[in-house]
Design goal:
Shape of chain A: globular
Number of strands of chain A: 3
Oligomer: homodimer
Largest interface: A-B, 51 and 51 residues
Number of helices of chain A: 6
Radius of gyration of chain A: 16 Å
Order of helices and strands of chain A: HHEHHEEHH
Strand content of chain A: 5-15%
Structural class of chain A: alpha+beta
Helix content of chain A: 40-55%
Chain lengths: 114, 114
């Protein structure tokens, strides 16, 4: 995450800006939304999200791990089996995103909303 | 906005994904958040957001106009004076983002949250 996105123009760290900058990354809202449905294996998550390439998805998941929103669990080493899940605070973020989903269902349900 | 971000893997348009893809763009959550404080002139908005270059900000504002979240009002032609404001549905989106702000204030108030 870039510094400037989580700081005020005066250079002070701001938790709200930090949050907005996490969400304002391509695919991140989608990832939180999909994991809100329960834990997923990497490939499963990639398929459900659709269109996000594996490299980007892996990077995003790592960043979300770093900020404590996602956890990665190695279920089995060989053959490799890794699951991704929301942490408790990640689940709270998912819940906090619900009003936005409602907004979307209300205002963007036609493909051409304007 | 890219098609794939607003469609299910099966290719169906999904209003929730469409919403997530609007928010999942760099600076967009910041723009909605700042305009939640009231109408702003372009330069004023650029300064308050901080770090977003003018070209990107202009592009984002145009996209947000296209989806009916932001409105652009020409207050004066010469000297040019343009104001940006949230539309009523844009204001509802801002309100829908409040729980996310609370989440940030709760969990990211230390710069190193993990």
């Amino acid at each position: 995450m870039e510094e400037k996105l989580s700081h005020t123009p005066e250079g002070e760290y701001c938790p709200i800006r930090a949050t907005l900058s996490i969400l304002g990354q391509k695919w991140v809202p989608h990832i939180v939304y999909e994991l809100g449905g329960g834990k997923r294996r990497f490939n499963e998550l990639a398929i459900r999200i659709g269109g996000c390439n594996a490299r980007t998805l892996r990077d995003r998941l790592e960043e979300l791990e770093d900020v404590g929103i996602v956890r990665r669990k190695i279920v089995n080493k060989m053959p490799p089996w890794v699951e991704y899940d929301l942490t408790p605070r990640g689940r709270e973020l998912y819940d906090a995103m619900r009003p936005i989903q409602h907004w979307g269902a209300r205002y963007l349900s036609a493909a051409s909303p304007a």
